[in-house]
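Researcher: We plan to redesign the surface later, but first we want a full-length starting point. Tokens attached.
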């Protein structure tokens, strides 16, 4: 069942055991995809372990932590029409990469396919799956699943050329809700994003994470996206809603301060989305306010 259509890209930082488990799972897939790993400056022997145990994996070592932009570095080397992302603590289920490629082959205006996320070791669905499955975004009749306003990088297959044309992940955002800006730019380029319930990725969350820092960056990045792409009225409403609903703590205060300090470059790079894309985002606002699965801003 070898399938040459998709390359898997993984970014990692100081998670050697989790990454080796993920690479072992990917190596066992029937599709036998090419895998590219960007090691974001690990100091725990990650790169050496990958070279020793997975010599067939293309290993990139930029020498510093690029955050989500480490994926951009890897995509430069992708030669397949599709690129699948997964984190160092997640892995694709057998057949899911081929299933996503089939959907992208079949629908030329489809830019990305997001899979169902199963949380391990219990095998339960991630709470965000229900929100993906019941997305309020309207889509064309040909779309093979619910239309999405954004995607989850750790569970998505994209068209390589569409990713490159949209500019990939903005390096300024680093990590934490970095997908929202790229998803909007893909939609502005005319691509549709969808969720596919029959595709699966497994996620066993690493204990090596700074949840507070990730939340801080997520709030900041949500603000930046809002100011970069939304019209003035919706941008103000979403900013005020965030100010009312985020936890009253130091992380939230720092997030707002960092976002405000960046206003000069935000205003220089501001580019409001086309009306039809903005209308989809407005439909998502009620769901965002009541979401129980917000990973960064709730």
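Model: Full-length starting sequence:
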């Amino acid at each position: 069942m070898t399938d040459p259509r998709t390359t898997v890209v993984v970014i990692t930082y100081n998670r050697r055991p989790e990454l080796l488990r993920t690479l072992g799972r990917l190596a066992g897939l029937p599709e036998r995809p090419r895998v590219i790993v960007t090691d974001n400056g690990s100091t725990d022997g990650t790169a050496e372990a990958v070279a020793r145990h997975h010599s067939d994996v293309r290993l990139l070592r930029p020498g510093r932590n690029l955050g989500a932009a480490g994926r951009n570095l890897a995509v430069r080397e992708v030669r397949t029409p599709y690129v699948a992302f997964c984190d160092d603590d997640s892995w694709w289920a057998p057949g899911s990469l081929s299933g996503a490629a089939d959907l992208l082959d079949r629908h030329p205006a489809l830019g990305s396919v997001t899979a169902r996320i199963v949380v391990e070791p219990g095998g339960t669905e991630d709470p965000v799956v229900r929100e993906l499955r019941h997305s309020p975004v309207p889509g064309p009749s040909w779309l093979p699943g619910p239309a999405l306003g954004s995607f989850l990088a750790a569970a998505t297959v994209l068209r390589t050329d569409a990713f490159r044309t949209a500019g990939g992940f903005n390096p300024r955002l680093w990590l934490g809700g970095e997908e929202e800006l790229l998803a909007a730019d893909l939609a502005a380029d005319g691509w549709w994003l969808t969720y596919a319930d029959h595709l699966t990725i497994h996620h066993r969350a690493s204990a090596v994470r700074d949840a507070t820092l990730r939340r801080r960056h997520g709030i900041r990045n949500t603000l930046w996206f809002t100011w970069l792409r939304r019209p003035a009225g919706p941008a103000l409403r979403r900013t005020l809603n965030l100010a009312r609903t985020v936890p009253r703590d130091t992380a939230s205060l720092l997030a707002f301060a960092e976002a405000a300090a960046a206003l000069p470059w935000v205003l220089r790079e501001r580019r409001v989305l086309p009306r039809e894309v903005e209308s989809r985002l407005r439909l998502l606002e009620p769901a965002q306010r009541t979401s129980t699965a917000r990973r960064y801003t709730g």
